[in-house]
Fold this sequence. Notes:
8 helices; 50% helix; 8% strand; globular; binds glutathione
Amino acid sequence: MPNLTLYHAAPSRSSVTLWMLEEVGEPFDLHLLSLQKGDNRAPAYLAVNPMGKVPALKHGDAVVTESAAICLYLADAFPNANLSVPIGDPRRGPFLKWLFFGPSVIEPAILDRAYKRAEEAPRAALGYGDFETVMDVVAKAVEPGPYILGDRFTAADVVIGSGLRWGMMFKLIPERPEFRAYADRLAQRPALQRAEARDRELAG
Ligand SMILES: N[C@@H](CCC(=O)N[C@@H](CS)C(=O)NCC(=O)O)C(=O)O
């Protein structure tokens, strides 16, 4: 019996971690929740993630929440999948930077633009600064390719790639040629194709 369980709603932010699990290649169970039916607010699930949000991952007795944290956890827990950058390797710095950049910079920049605040916050107070700078920085990072750290695909691509794919799909970010080319490269990955097919099946 797999000792990995993903609490998942299809499709949602937990799809990021479904893709990551497919990249890792270890057997896992899916515990499907319906956000529409409010399964995520039921006491049994709040005992797993008191935030009432997906994803959550159980690995034995360990529970990990937050999609980027789950990606990093899996990358480190299963080194044979070669999706992490080990401590001591100088590329560990950029690897962590991009893992954190997804949820703490790209996502808030996109959502603040989509849902305007009553009062605009000063640039210096916003962790992401401003939307245009975020887009420029990410475009420059993914342009050389094929991946965000160069020739090695890592968990950071799952996080950053998912953000860009989602942003373009909902037209929340400009479809820059650098983003499109990077997303197209990622779309070639069999693990992403498997995760998408599974989500389609689950959502259908
Ligand atoms: N920071 C969290 C965000 C998770 C999140 O917002 N998940 C959404 C699905 S896309 C959710 O569970 N929404 C249900 C709700 O808040 O009621 C992460 O990246 O894992």
